[in-house]
Automatic annotation (TrEMBL):
It catalyses: diphthine methyl ester-[translation elongation factor 2] + H2O = diphthine-[translation elongation factor 2] + methanol + H(+). Pfam families: WD40. It comes from Eschrichtius robustus (California gray whale). This is Diphthine methyltransferase. PANTHER family: DIPHTHINE METHYLTRANSFERASE. Belongs to the DPH7 family. Keywords: Hydrolase, Repeat, WD repeat. It comes from the Eukaryota. WD repeats lie at residues 289-331. PROSITE patterns: WD_REPEATS_1, WD_REPEATS_2, WD_REPEATS_REGION. One of its GO terms (molecular function) is diphthine methylesterase activity.
Length: 520
């Protein structure tokens, strides 16, 4: 558990390998969710200097998800922003399956491995100081490779789109019960193609101020290199295909809308190419970029700054683009691992969060690169989780607000943070022996360099198990710090722009982490 490749050797196949291995080439070793090979650099590529700033992160909770986990998504809709979805991907080997009594050998060697997953729904409850995430639902599914919440309500409900290994896009609607609890229920499903895996999806609703008469669209990519443009019905369940086209020769790891021009989509593939497409004439790409030297596996259009696009790759670089001119990126940011997810902060326009596989997760500020074209990019936090691969990251849409000398409260409008009947998500140390746990255990906080707090002792044992912070014992970490958490509906002018909640998930050790990040 938690194995990684040594420099120069082929990384171990991940639990999610789904294709016969190809020859080791210029792109990443195929085998989804593996530690990438050593990065190949472009000799003429312009590098951005990284400047470390004094940020810190506190681990609020670590949850054992039981299965390997690769996706976390906070709900963006007001009244539901305390809800967090978490998706897992598990591969069951043929020998793990019950033997076929009609088979002479008891094992059908031609039977493919089974990919299965589980979808968790958690509610953030600040009144539960030691375990603020409360599990309200778990739902067994096909293996999950990507998830995205729609940014608007559809037929009166929040919708979660799920890209499944079964080759389908499933929409789940959020239903609130009379007991004030929440469940995700099937709403619609669309099968993409036979013999493929759905690898990613994105909604066309990412930018605030979207016109109500615009069609509700989904772009998805699959393991055969195709893109699928779907339209979701807004009055009720159902999706219809708008177009399908071959975009890449190998796996199309990522597909994303340009939130400012939703006729335009972007795709990244295991062939190392980043492409732009006009969905009205999808036969030929608008552009093709070879600036990444390995598979392009993460793309996100900025919801705040028009013409700004971020892409990440197995080559351990984040590129920032002005989409009006894609010959040269605005910035080229070296990471410490392959970049599987990129997330712009929902409110603070220039903050970008990256899931960097074996390099942990990184937060950096893109303002000077975007506005002034400067070659200095401040990194506010870079934290490496030991013995794990970080594949999922997301910012919470809740925000902190400093209080005067009064008692704080949980500002979620009509939606309290707790769900009656919900089960508190146990800290990982209560689910695993400390000697077996690969989750980071530290008492207080980590500085920007990723060091600090309790260290691992020899033999894998921990000096101190995961425990609440000292102030938790006296009534809650929020109460001691004099802050409250609020929805977007409250004035952001009163928000503390330096404090955010972040969720991350790591693959081999199957742990979901909840962090409080402070940018000093």
């Amino acid at each position: 558990m938690g194995t990684t490749a040594e420099v120069g050797e082929v990384p171990p196949l991940g639990l999610c390998t789904f294709l016969a291995p190809r020859a080791w080439g210029p792109c990443c070793q195929p085998g989804f969710l593996t530690s990438p090979p050593p990065a190949v650099r472009h000799p003429g590529r312009r590098r951005v200097l990284l400047r470390m700033l004094g940020g810190r992160v506190r681990l609020l909770q670590a949850v054992d998800t039981e299965h390997t986990v690769d996706s976390v998504e906070w709900c963006p809709l007001e009244g539901c922003r305390h809800l967090l979805a978490c998706g897992t991907y598990q591969l069951r080997k043929p020998e793990d399956q019950p033997a076929d009594p009609e088979s002479k050998s008891g094992l059908d060697v031609d039977e493919p491995q089974i990919r299965f997953g589980r979808l968790y729904l958690y509610s953030f409850n600040e009144d539960s100081s030691s375990c603020p995430l409360v599990e309200v639902q778990r739902r067994d599914t096909s293996a999950i490779l990507d998830m995205k919440w729609c940014h608007i309500a559809v037929a009166g409900h929040a919708l979660l789109g799920v890209a499944e290994a079964a080759g389908s896009i499933e929409l789940l609607r959020l239903v609130r019960s009379e007991q004030n609890s929440y469940t995700l229920q099937p709403f619609s499903r669309f099968a993409l193609e036979k013999q493929c895996l759905a690898l990613s999806l994105d909604w066309s609703t990412g930018k605030a101020g979207r016109a109500g008469d615009q069609p509700l669209k989904i772009i998805s990519s699959d393991s055969s290199g195709q893109l699928h443009l779907l339209q979701a019905y807004q009055a009720g369940p159902g999706m219809q295909a708008v177009g399908t086209w071959q975009a890449h020769h190998f796996e199309a790891w990522a597909a994303a809308f340009d939130y400012w021009q939703t006729e335009v989509v972007y795709s990244g593939g295991d062939d190392g190419l980043l492409k732009g497409w006009d969905t009205r004439t999808p036969g030929t790409p608008v552009f093709t970029s070879r600036r990444h030297s390995m598979g392009v596996c993460s793309i996100q259009s900025s919801p705040h700054c028009e013409n700004v696009l971020a892409t990440g790759s197995y080559d351990e670089h984040v590129l920032l683009w002005d989409t009006r001119s894609v010959k040269q990126p605005l910035a080229d940011v070296p990471m410490q691992g392959g970049v599987w997810r990129l997330k712009w902060h929902p409110f603070h326009h220039h903050l970008l969060l990256a899931a960097c596989m074996h390099g942990g997760f990184t937060i950096f500020n893109c303002q000077k690169a975007i506005e002034e074209n400067q070659e200095v990019l401040p990194v506010t936090l870079s934290y490496t989780l030991p013995n794990s691969l970080v594949y999922g990251v997301d910012w919470s849409w809740l925000y902190f607000r400093r209080l005067p000398q009064t008692h704080p409260s949980f500002c979620l409008g009509s939606s309290p943070g707790s769900d009656p009947g919900g089960k508190t998500a146990d800290p990982v140390c209560s689910l695993k022996d400390a000697a077996q746990s690969s989750a980071p255990c530290f008492e207080r906080l980590a500085d920007a360099d990723g060091e600090g707090g309790t260290k691992h002792q020899s033999g894998g044992k921990l000096k101190t198990p995961l425990q609440p912070f000292a102030e938790d014992k006296d009534g809650g970490w929020l109460h001691a710090s004099g802050v409250q958490i609020c929805e977007r509906g409250h004035s952001l002018e009163a928000a503390d722009s330096d404090v955010s909640l972040v969720a991350t998930c790591s693959f081999y050790d199957h742990v979901l982490h909840l962090w409080k990040w402070e940018n000093s």
